[in-house]
Design a protein that fits this description.
20 strands
């Protein structure tokens, strides 16, 4: 296992919403919050400038850049797709399908609605605890349940009763009372949940799902499907740090994706990877965090204890073919810790880099044979 050592350490524990991945595309240095409309470096007079759009969607900053098309309507269509999927997967939006499933709101009158409109679950036969849900929610929950079971509950999508207690976006966030945490812990288990097609059976009325750890990856994959169907072969989808590359740059060279320095500004990287046609997703303790009583609390919660994981890791980055896999595995491998997390990533056939508290990089076997990575000197 190869390692690199960091040359600086920082601590800005009150920083929130720091995105773990930023794109450093040579033909177009990407700024996460601004459109990228000008090319530099290797561009020629005959090359078309990429088109890009930035917005706040899915409770994060997103950016979509297309390199081989000038059809700006594709960008607007991608934003519209984000809105539609948010109306399915949001845990807090009272109009979303997931919210209605979590709160057992049934309406058979709208059971035939599609993604083009609002989706609403309904009870099968009107009385059982089996619910008919959209194919999109069924697909995402199935992905989450698979990872939940493979990780022996280190990752569990039925963690909503716990995540609802922790508000990392509050003006002055605080840890919940321990009594409240202990009360909801028995509810944070997806044991007994089954999905058959679009029918999900819930063994308890208390089960509630939170798909925040996998939804952005799933949505990124769907945006890629849409763009590829429209003939796009060179693009970057960046959903708040979930980066999915479609192909490579128009000249055939890979995109440059940087791994952000922990607790540093978003334009500071520790290493840069050559990526083509793959997803890069990270989970880390500095995405959403706060300090209380001298202790750092972050958003990656242990469903067994109710508190953030404290296992010596700062972040985990997953490189995979599908973004939904990278999204789920980045959180899962973080939860499992360095040793077991590396084994799990290798078992799942993805490449990963773990950053430990000593700011050392740990790679899965074969990482540097498959992916060209360059250390960035500070």
């Amino acid at each position: 296992m190869s390692t690199y050592f960091f040359h600086s350490k920082r601590s800005r524990s009150h920083s929130r919403f720091f995105y773990l991945i930023l794109c450093t595309v040579l033909v177009c240095p990407m700024l996460l919050f601004t459109g990228c409309q000008n090319t530099t470096g290797t561009s020629t007079a005959t090359e078309k400038e990429p088109i890009s759009i930035s917005s706040i969607k899915l409770n994060t900053a997103i950016q979509i850049t297309i390199y081989d098309s000038q059809d700006k309507s594709l960008l607007d269509d991608c934003l519209a797709l984000c809105d539609r999927y948010e109306l399915i997967f949001s845990r807090t939006n009272e109009n979303s399908e997931l919210y209605k499933l979590n709160h057992r709101i049934s309406d058979s009158a709208v059971s035939n609605q599609t993604i083009e409109t609002q989706t609403t679950p309904y009870q099968v036969n009107g009385t059982t605890n089996t619910w008919h849900i959209s194919e999109y929610l069924a697909a995402l929950l199935s992905e989450g349940l698979d990872i939940t079971r493979e990780s022996d509950g280190a990752f569990d999508i039925a963690i909503a009763p716990l995540t609802s207690l922790w508000d990392f976006t509050a003006e002055d966030p605080k840890a919940p009372d321990d009594a409240d945490i202990q009360k909801v812990l028995p509810l944070c288990s997806s044991d007994g949940v089954t999905i058959d097609g679009q029918d999900i059976t819930l063994p308890s009325d208390d089960i509630q799902f939170d798909v925040g750890a996998i939804a952005k990856g799933y949505i990124a994959d769907r945006l890629k499907d849409f763009l590829v169907k429209k003939g796009v072969n060179s693009a970057i989808i960046n959903l708040g740090g979930n980066v999915l590359c479609i192909g490579s740059k128009p000249n055939g060279t890979p995109f440059k994706i940087g791994i952000q320095k922990p607790f540093a500004d978003r334009n500071e990287t520790e290493a840069v990877m050559d990526i083509a046609g793959k997803s890069v997703v990270s989970s880390g303790i500095y995405e959403r965090c706060f300090k209380q009583g001298g202790k750092l609390y972050h958003h990656i919660l242990n469903p067994q204890t109710g508190y953030p994981y404290d296992n010596g890791l700062i972040s985990v980055t997953i490189i995979s073919d599908q973004s939904v896999n990278g999204d789920a595995l980045s959180t899962t491998c973080f939860a499992l810790g360095l040793k077991d997390g590396l084994k799990f990533a290798e078992k799942k056939g993805v490449q990963a880099v773990f950053i430990t508290e000593d700011y050392e990089l740990h790679y899965t076997d074969g990482f540097q044979d498959e992916i060209n990575v360059t250390d960035v000197e500070s």
